[in-house]
Amino acid sequence: MKRVLIAEDSSVIQNLAKKILEFQNFEITAVKNGEQVMQLLDKEDFDILLLDINMPIMDGMECVKAIRQLSDSKKSQLPVVAITGNAKNYTDTDFKEAGFNDALMKPLNFDRLVDVVKGLTE
């Protein structure tokens, strides 16, 4: 079973994404910020990370950059997908340059969520 780590400070989005992906037979772990992501990655392996851009403590942009700099090459290459309401007007180029594999806009399109997660974990 593929493991998905979701970092999202909105419990509504977190729970919806979790239900949808569990229905597709993914195992989900959910956290609230980038700092918790880094702590978990230190101890565990995941197949993909869904990362909200706008989070307290360590936001998605900071977090993906930290992941790409990890010394463990498997972890530094982890597929990471941005989840964004785009409050800061980032472009696709900004996301790619930061190290994201893809970006999902809020409100989440759940068919696209499933397609992207499946595509990056096959």
Keywords:
single chain; 122 residues; alpha/beta; Rossmann fold; five-stranded parallel β-sheet; 6 helices; globular; two-component regulatory system; CheY-like_superfamily; phosphoprotein; Response regulator receiver protein
Describe the overall structure.
The modification 4-aspartylphosphate is found at residue 52. Residues 3-121 form the Response regulatory domain. It holds the Pfam family Response_reg. InterPro entries: CheY-like_superfamily (IPR011006), Sig_transdc_resp-reg_receiver (IPR001789). This protein is α/β, with parallel strands linked by helices and 122 residues long. The protein has a single domain, classed as Response regulator (Rossmann fold, 3-Layer(aba) Sandwich). It is built from 6 helices and 5 strands; from the N terminus they run E-H-E-H-E-H-H-E-H-E-H. The protein has helices at 11-23, 34-43, 60-68, 73-76, 92-98, 110-121, and strands at residues 3-7, 27-31, 48-52, 80-84, 102-105. The protein has a 5-stranded parallel β-sheet, sandwiched between helices. Helix 5 links the parallel strand 4 (80-84) and strand 5 (102-105). The longest helix is centred in the first third of the chain and has 13 residues, at 11-23.
Give the helices and strands, then pairings:
Blueprint: E1 3-7, H1 11-23, E2 27-31, H2 34-43, E3 48-52, H3 60-68, H4 73-76, E4 80-84, H5 92-98, E5 102-105, H6 110-121
Parallel strand pairs: 1-2, 1-3, 3-4, 4-5
Helix pairs in contact: 2-3
Protein name: Response regulator receiver protein
InterPro entries: CheY-like_superfamily, Sig_transdc_resp-reg_receiver
Domain Response regulatory: 3-121
